Amino acid sequence: MLNRRDAIKLGSVVGAALVFPTKQLASAFSDDPPGVPPFSVPLSIPPVLKPTRSTADADFYDMRIAETELEVLPGIRTKTLTFNGSFPGPTLRARRGRAVVVRQFNGLSGPATVHLHGADVPASSDGHPMDPIAPGQSREYRYPNDQRAATLWYHDHTHHFEGERVYRGLSGAYLLSDPVDELLPLPTGEFDVPLMLRDAKFDSKGQLVFVPDDFLNRPTVLVNGRPQPYFEVKRKLYRLRLINGSNLEMFKFRLSTGAPFLQIASDGGFLRVPAVRQEIDVWPAERAEVLVDFRSVPPGTAIALQNVAALSENKRDILQFRVGDGGSWAKPEIAIPSWSGGGRVPLVRGQVPGWPANNALRGRVTRTRRFVLRLDLAKGQFVINDQGFDPDRVDATIEHGSTEIWEIVNDDAALGIQHTLHLHLVQFRVLDRNGKPEPAHDSYPKDTVRLFPGDVVRIQATFDSHLGRYPFHCHFLDHATHSMMGQFEVVPKR
């Protein structure tokens, strides 16, 4: 007879079992590891990678992809896949106008690729799923950093393996700054904090369990590789870079006090006008930069960063801020609503040289395309326009310099399945959703767009940088693995 716990778990796998029924059921009934009390381990900050050498216009780095045993859960050694032995990988801090060259050595037994998500890079350095590094070999990826400041992230993109590889640890933050930043009174140093968030399932021995599309059976939330940690903060203003590095988990962030965030950036960089937000949606691969103000918070206060979209109560509170005695600090240029409400938001930066204008996308629209995303139950595949990924097929040939509108349809309303769509190479504008304009804070600059079941979303992009073949795909990575991905090719203008 099923006990209450097993009955709940059985109900949670019904939708996922449409695609991988046997594995989902095995996952649902597998033993879980010893519970880790929420907010019992400190937050870890990934190390910042140092260049091995530098020239007048470039910084060079060496990284190694390998299996590593690390302590993820307290007192347990877990097998992970890592960049340079770090889970998540080390943070790279780059600067606009200075190239970064990363030599990636593949220490795995199979092929590996590395994609810098959100980056405007040549096709040879994009980390295309079909352009792998052979085992025991290395490759140099060159990132020109000729784009606006942004919170980017890098991850494995090996075809048919990207979902499991990222799940087991192959991802890290890449933070690109710009001289324009120096004109803005934003928090820096220890007050500029990347937070990579994701979900996971561990077995009774503390080892990661990967089952494709098993989104309802990944009960542990990791922040920078630690389960529901606490973060000791000073009475200062913090810049938090929220990166959803999970395969399937959707976050709707909120502070337990009800205090607002000041959102200053989206996927591809700064918003023209910061937005006061009570809640912020960040789906897989999306990013948001926010300011959180602890300056007037009494010492000893505990505030939880919550996911109000969590499907289970144990995943609701994901990070606890513990406010210490550090003295309050402020620059008069930044004032955001206080914890008790009110205040003002003068951090409007349209006057700053080089700041993206609201009409930043260029060019006359030359073509409109339509892409329909759905689960094909007969094939057991996630498909785009009824086709799975074929590396020999180009789904869109685009002349260099063209501006296009893509209409993206989530045709899984009946099954209630969400998707996101990510375009490599470009940042785009979300024009509208189901015929209604997208809010400014969710419209530009974006490289990943979320799609609720039944959504019809239009995006506009200009392809005026590099030539070559690039993927576009659902960034619910388990969907991309099976096989929701296509390719566009930018060709010389006739």
From TrEMBL:
Residues 67-179, 221-296, 382-493 form the Plastocyanin-like domain. Keywords: Capsid protein, Cell cycle, Cell division, Virion. GO terms for biological process: cell division. It holds the Pfam family Cu-oxidase_3. It comes from the Bacteria. Gene3D superfamilies: Cupredoxins - blue copper proteins (2.60.40.420). GO terms for molecular function: copper ion binding; oxidoreductase activity. Belongs to the multicopper oxidase family. PANTHER family: BILIRUBIN OXIDASE, CUPREDOXIN SUPERFAMILY PROTEIN. This is Multicopper oxidase with three cupredoxin domains (Includes cell division protein FtsP and spore coat protein CotA). It comes from Lentzea jiangxiensis.
